[in-house]
Task: structure prediction
Amino acid sequence: SCDLVISQDVMEHVFEPEKAFAEIGRILKPGGVHIFTIPYLPQMPTRPRAKLEEGAVVHLLEPEYHGDPVTSSGSLVVTDWGHDTAALIKDASGMQTTVHELQDPLKGIVGAHLEVLVSVKQDTSQ
Result:
């Protein structure tokens, strides 16, 4: 079991992200934490952009790719994460998720997608 899992800008590229969150919840110790970043769009609900069917990618929306240091074609975005992200993670893993806004103009921290999300595995032994 792990105390901490950290991921940075990866969950938007994962097919079946609910399985990834469930696995993270499974391996965390009670009270363990998953700290992660995603392009978070609080003005809309989460929506799938692509899915796998029989091993083939099916695009549900116009394909979008993010920069990838490994391949010049980029990484396909399969999920746009929205205001219901915490509820989706709770349903998939049982973890409670909070969104932390890191905007701080006085410190020069201004821009899009600066949110950090923190999911905590509940300690059910009490």
In short: Helices lie at 17-27, 85-93. The chain is about 15% helix and 35% strand. The chain has a mean pLDDT of 94. The two ends are 19 Å apart (CA to CA).
